[in-house]
Amino acid sequence: MKQLDAAQSSLPQDVALKIASLLQVRDLCALACCSRFWRQICSSDCVWESLVTERWPSIASSSSSPSTHPPNSKEWRKLYIKKHNDVVVTATAVAKFVEESSPHKSLEVGDYLKAVQDLSAAKLGFKDVQMILFRPKLNVLTNLVGLHYCLTGLGITGDELKEALETSEISERHVCIKWWKLGRWFYGFRMRDESHSRWVSLANLATNDDDEHILGVLHRGAIYEVLRVQISSDDRTTTPWSTQTHG
């Protein structure tokens, strides 16, 4: 072990830091177990500061403001671990809430928007959503909540988001959006309420490739002309889009 440490310590520190900075957290922790030399390198503040900045840009921007002081030396790793644990707790709670609110694979828009707001309040980053909410084993409604938050809360572009969905193997999962609109008045009589429904894939929502602005219906929720909005899950990989209107 001493010979190994001696050989590795001959590596210039800036080169070793460059190598460590290219690794993801899991690989970085594995490398730190190799020797005392790499443990010291992989614990470097600059390495973990870069990881925090990459995963949570909002933390980095707030740290650079005059009113906020960045963490002290050797505190970036602790900050990363704490923030990661907080994110996991919040995202897991949101996934559980969605699951419990949709016992029959159907979610009312009020509960849906609450889940999105909870993610926004916790200031999850794009990587957080990919790691925790874009898992194919989760309910597709949970995937949809994460997708909605990325579009409206993080401003992630369609192509970038679609690529993330494809990497997570959930891009072709479908949901059915149903909404009921108040019937129109016609010569003093109010017509029957209108019922609309639309099957749409997560990939199409990510690129806003729909002609009825489904995301807008979800984002607005139940308002004065829309009596109710309901989201249902579906496990089919190929589902034709459809729209039904009953007057």
Can you tag this structure with a few keywords?
alpha+beta; disordered C terminus; 247 residues; Monooxygenase; two-stranded antiparallel sheet; 4-stranded antiparallel β-sheet; 2 domains
Give a brief outline of the structure.
This is F-box domain-containing protein. This protein is of the alpha+beta class and 247 residues long.
Helix/strand order, N-terminal first: HHHHHHHEHHHHEEEEHHE
Output mean pLDDT: 82
Strand order of the largest sheet: 1-6-2-5
Low-confidence stretches: 65-73, 236-247
Radius of gyration: 23 Å
Q: Determine the fraction of residues in helical runs and give it as a percent range.
A: 40-55%
Helix count from the secondary structure assignment: 13
Number of domains: 2
Let me know the number of strands: 6
> So what's the overall shape?
elongated
Description:
- It contains 13 helices and 6 strands.
- The protein has 247 residues and is an alpha+beta fold.
- The protein has 2 domains: 2-79, Monooxygenase (Up-down Bundle), CATH 1.20.1280; 106-234, no CATH class.
- Strand 3 and strand 4 (189-190) form a beta hairpin.
- Helix 7 (76-101) packs antiparallel against helix 8 and helix 8 (109-122) packs across helix 10.
- It is elongated and about 90 Å long.
- The termini are far apart.
- The relative contact order is 0.10.
- The model is unreliable at 65-73 and 236-247 (pLDDT under 50).
